[in-house]
Write a structure and sequence with these properties.
Structural class: alpha+beta
Strand content: 5-15%
Shape: rod-shaped
Keywords: ATP-binding, Kinase, Membrane, Nucleotide-binding, Phosphoprotein, Transferase, Transmembrane, Transmembrane helix, Two-component regulatory system
Largest sheet: 5 strands, mixed
Oligomer: single chain
Low-confidence stretches: 1-6, 35-42, 343-348
Number of domains: 2
Pfam families: DUF7134, HisKA_3
Mean pLDDT: 76
GO molecular function: ATP binding; phosphorelay sensor kinase activity; protein dimerization activity
InterPro entries: DUF7134, HATPase_C_sf, Sensor_HK_TwoCompSys, Sig_transdc_His_kin_sub3_dim/P
Organism: Nocardiopsis sinuspersici
Distance between the termini: 65 Å
């Protein structure tokens, strides 16, 4: 800590405290200068020396106004002056207290040791026939020690309050960082949802638009059906985007989540796109919400990949399980009737399966995928289903 503190503007409280300290020091000086006939003191000082002592005492009292800026210098000067003058004792005690409050204990105790030596010198110079030397010395040392101890108590209390304040600020900062981290996780989850939902919708649009392009001889009924699917998928994609934007505007939130009840509609949409999907259900009981949501995303990603990489292939969706045994979700497709579409060009191939593997892992399940013996592709996942 710097020996010289930066001066600051005095507030109303500082004016009151400084004025009280000055008046108290002056009162001590007047009491020390008072003479009592029944208790004569020796030796008697000359008038001019007593005048010098009074003037220096007044300057010592006035110096207390700057004790916050120079606590060490003022305390040491007043301690040294107290060795030869008794009238400065009040100002010296106030300086010791202020030093203990504003400086480290090591500095305060060092100055206190100096004040004990000054008390010894003062007791030796100004002996009192009515009080033994040792009593005067011990009384002065005890009074200075009490003032220094009081100042150290205030110093440690202020440090404790500052420490508690810092801990509160630190805790508030940690809470804010945790909230931001939670928001970041929510937005990452939303990014996965956007990939799953919009990827599914846009793949439907691509399939039907491609059919209209390469089937100019399609009947009016087929064209109308494809146009209906394109219109509904585009409308639903816009609805999903509106929901995403609405969630992004809020501090924290999440998209409306699908359930197991939406699987049938998902399969029907894929079947209408010409994927020839067979849906096999073999579970009983209410599937937990988290498990059902993960199952829906697995089927959605599997059907999307079939449309991307094996358009027109026969597909089988299997969902079976029971409480305690878990839920098995499988999407298996045969070989594509035609050549696999070109998937080069950095379209994010494989990102859907990576995100799906992370989703299944967070649900405490496991995911398997790869080609099967018949030349097709198999995507299988097991999800826990507690009793």
């Amino acid at each position: 800590m710097n020996a010289m503190a930066v001066p600051r503007r005095r507030g109303a409280r500082d004016w009151i405290v400084d004025s009280s300290a000055f008046l108290l020091a002056v009162l001590f000086a007047l009491m020390g200068a008072a003479e009592f006939p029944e208790f004569p003191t020796e030796p008697v000082l000359p008038v001019w020396l007593r005048g010098v002592d009074a003037l220096l005492t007044l300057l010592a009292c006035l110096s207390l106004w700057w004790r916050r800026c120079w606590p060490v210098q003022i305390a040491v000067a007043l301690v040294l002056f107290s060795a030869v003058s008794g009238m400065v004792s009040g100002a010296m005690l106030i300086a010791l207290f202020s030093l203990a409050v504003h400086r480290p204990p090591r500095t305060s105790l060092a100055v206190y040791g100096l004040s004990v030596g000054a008390a010894f010198v003062n007791s030796a110079l100004w002996s009192d026939p009515h009080a033994p030397f040792l009593v005067l010395f011990l009384l002065g040392a005890a009074l200075q020690g009490a003032v220094t101890g009081w100042g150290l108590t205030v110093h440690h209390r202020r440090e404790l309050v500052e420490s508690l304040r810092d801990r509160a600020v630190h805790a508030e900062t940690e809470a804010r960082l945790r909230a931001e981290h939670a928001q970041h996780q929510v937005r990452e989850a939303m990014a996965r949802e956007i990939h799953d939902v919009l990827g599914h919708r846009l793949s439907l649009l691509s399939v039907h638009a491609g059919a209209l392009e390469y089937r100019p001889d399609a009947s009016a009924e087929e064209v109308a059906r494809s146009a209906k699917v394109i219109r509904e998928s585009a409308h639903q994609a816009l609805q999903d985007l509106r929901e995403v934007i609405g969630v992004l505007r809020a501090p924290v939130g999440e998209l409306p989540q699908p359930t197991m009840a939406d699987l049938q509609q998902l399969v029907e949409e894929a079947d209408e796109a010409g994927a020839r999907v067979e849906f096999v259900e073999g579970y009983s009981g209410a599937v937990p919400e988290r498990t059902g949501r993960a199952a829906y995303r697995i089927v959605q990603e599997g059907l999307t990949n079939v449309r991307k990489h094996a358009p027109g292939a026969d597909t089988r969706v299997l969902v079976r399980g029971a409480p305690g045994d878990g839920l098995l979700v499988e999407v298996r497709n045969g070989p594509s009737p035609g050549p696999e579409p070109d998937a080069t060009g950095g379209d994010g191939r494989g990102q859907g399966l990576a995100g799906l593997a992370e989703r299944v892992s967070l649900a405490s399940g496991h995911l398997e995928h790869g080609p099967d013996a018949g030349g097709g592709w198999r995507l299988s996942a097991w999800l826990p289903w507690p009793v």
